[in-house]
TrEMBL record, chain A:
Domain of life of the organism encoding this protein: Bacteria
Molecular-function GO terms, alphabetical: ABC-type amino acid transporter activity; ATP binding; ATP hydrolysis activity
Keywords of the record: ATP-binding, Nucleotide-binding, Transport
Protein name stated in the entry: Peptide ABC transporter ATP-binding protein
A Pfam family this chain is assigned to: ABC_tran
TrEMBL record, chain B:
Sorted UniProt keywords: Amino-acid transport, Cell membrane, Membrane, Transmembrane, Transmembrane helix, Transport
Transmembrane keyword on record: yes
Mode of membrane association: Multi-pass membrane protein
A single BP term in Gene Ontology: amino acid transport
Pfam families, sorted: BPD_transp_1
Native organism: Carboxydothermus islandicus
CDD domains in the cross-refs: TM_PBP2
Compartment(s) where it occurs, according to its Swiss-Prot or TrEMBL record: Cell membrane
Gene3D superfamilies the UniProt entry points to: MetI-like
GO CC, any one term: ATP-binding cassette (ABC) transporter complex
NCBIfam families membership: HEQRo_perm_3TM
Protein name: Glutamine ABC transporter permease
Molecular-function annotations in GO: transmembrane transporter activity
Organismal lineage: Bacteria, Bacillati, Bacillota, Clostridia, Thermoanaerobacterales
Length: 242, 228
């Protein structure tokens, strides 16, 4: 579903991704962990071209994103993204947030888009919030609307960039629950998160990144119980014992 | 010589007419200026370097030169330029045409900067979220960024309106009969400089105060019903 070959990304002189290569299969749930600044977000953002790779290749669903002939807007409709800070549209209701792209991008009829949106709101447990504006919702509710918004485009892949780290602790669970359900339904997911419980429960593979490279990867239990690299051990001991 | 305030009452109908013209030309200038300014503002932040450059030259030229000179260039200069280009005789343009052209081109440059700042004040995550849903840059601007930016530009647009209302007094130099020109004409006839200029000033003040009230009212309404 996603193939990344020797991906490099530089911001001016700053070399952030230094040759990342990996393949993510359909229905696979991949969890990316690693210290701040290691390039996790940048990697994720290269998968839908919010960042343009400096060199290397990114393939999504058979499209080469680094080929200038690829219609990037079309590929982006196949790749949903959930942001740390939700990024809901504040001037639109929850329902309008969800229906905007299906109507404007997919050319869907309004009632059809709304029917889908109501289904998605139900799925994320917010049927009663359809007409609420983002600032009338809690962080956890906003993030669930953001997930529904991404799902409305019926993407083949969902990217999550620390979806729970801006939330108050009591709201983390409700968002993870929605993500668990998605994973169980077979969605292909790439998730940057330090929620180890989530990684263990639904993650098929954990990638540990540091300084722009994948240092180590493997099944969650392998990585968490029995890391091979010293850098992985140091990192895990830091986050598991805070 | 005593002050004679009765001349103010006598000239009030003529001055009021002038004030109406001032209001009219200001509304036209800022309306057309907003359209020009929206496009120039979008060009300023475009990725295309040519569009960016054109907008930059326009904004810098207009903001870096006096409106008075811009009025002269259009009213006196353009007919000669036209004649030189076509090889014919210079055809004078009407004060109204020159007034509309000079003030809206001038306002457009200031509004461009207002829009540019308004758009750039919207969180980057909004554009990213819209693009990640497959929207084009244009769709993201139109449905996500601009509706949010419009709300933020209302106060500076109000200021631009007030500044333009005062600056239209410069149009009197080309014989455009707005408020200041009316005042000058009346004084030419009754020689009551202080009374008439003072009345003119008060009329300007009334208009600017009313507009700033209107702007803060709109602003308050947008704040309470923050979504519409
Ligand atoms: N647009 C940008 N311009 C310049 N530098 C950037 C940009 N985006 C990211 N960086 C830099 O690239 C490096 C990697 O950033 P990235 O956001 O990918 O890290 P991360 O692993 O997601 O970290 P965190 O856990 O803090 O989110 C950082 O040093 C960051 O400052
Ligand atoms: Mg990050």
């Amino acid at each position: 579903m996603i193939t990344i070959k020797n991906l490099h990304k530089k911001f001016g002189k700053l070399h952030v991704l230094k040759g990342v290569t990996t393949h993510i299969k359909e229905r696979e749930v991949v969890v990316i962990i690693g210290p701040s600044g290691s390039g996790k977000s940048t990697l994720l953002r290269c998968i839908n071209l919010l960042e343009t790779p400096t060199s290397g290749e990114v393939w999504v669903d058979g499209f080469n994103l680094t080929d200038p002939k690829t219609d990037i807007n079309k590929v982006r409709t196949e790749v949903g993204m959930v942001f740390q800070r939700f990024n809901l549209f504040p001037h639109k209701t929850a329902l309008e947030n969800i229906t905007l792209a299906p109507i404007k991008v997919r050319g869907m009829k309004k009632d059809e888009a709304e029917a889908i949106a109501y289904d998605l709101l139900k799925k994320v447990g917010l049927s009663d919030k359809a007409n609420a504006y983002p600032d009338q919702l809690s962080g956890g509710q906003q993030q669930r609307v953001a997930i529904a918004r991404a799902l409305a485009m019926k993407p083949k892949v969902m990217l999550f960039d620390e979806p729970t780290s801006a939330l108050d602790p009591e709201m983390v669970g409700e968002v993870l629950e929605v993500m668990l359900e998605l994973a169980h339904e077979g969605m292909t997911m790439v998730v940057v998160t330090h929620e180890m419980g989530f990684a263990k429960e639904v993650g098929h593979r954990v990638l540990f990144m540091d300084e722009g490279v994948i240092v180590e990867e493997g099944k969650p239990e392998e990585i968490f119980q029995n890391p091979q690299q010293q850098r992985t051990k140091d990192f895990l001991s830091k986050i598991l014992h805070v | 010589m005593e002050l004679k305030w009765s001349v103010v009452i006598e000239s009030l109908p003529l001055l009021a007419e002038g004030a109406l013209v001032t209001l009219k030309i200001t509304v036209i200038a800022v309306t057309l200026g907003s359209i020009i300014g929206l496009f120039a503002g979008l060009m300023r932040i475009a990725r295309n370097p040519l569009l960016k450059f054109i907008a930059r030259v326009y904004v810098d030229f207009i903001r870096g030169t006096p409106l008075l000179v811009q009025i002269f260039i259009i009213y006196y200069g353009f007919p000669q330029l036209w004649a030189a280009l076509t090889g014919g005789q210079p055809q004078a343009i009407s004060p109204w045409a020159a007034a509309i052209a000079s003030t809206s081109i001038n306002s457009g440059a200031y509004v461009a900067e207002i829009f540019r700042a308004g758009i750039q004040s919207i969180d980057r995550g909004q554009m990213e979220a819209a693009r990640s849903l497959g929207m084009t840059y244009g769709q993201a601007m139109r449905y996500v960024i601009l509706p949010q930016a419009f709300k933020r530009v209302i106060p500076p647009l109000g200021n631009e309106f007030i500044a333009m209302l005062k600056d239209t007094s410069l149009l009197s130099v080309i014989g455009f009969e707005e408020l200041a020109r009316r005042g000058a004409l009346i004084i030419g006839y009754n020689a009551r400089a202080f009374e008439v200029w003072f009345a003119v000033a008060i009329l300007y003040l009334i208009m600017t105060l009313l507009i700033s009230q209107l702007v803060s009212f709109t602003e308050r309404r947008l704040k309470t019903g923050d979504h519409h």
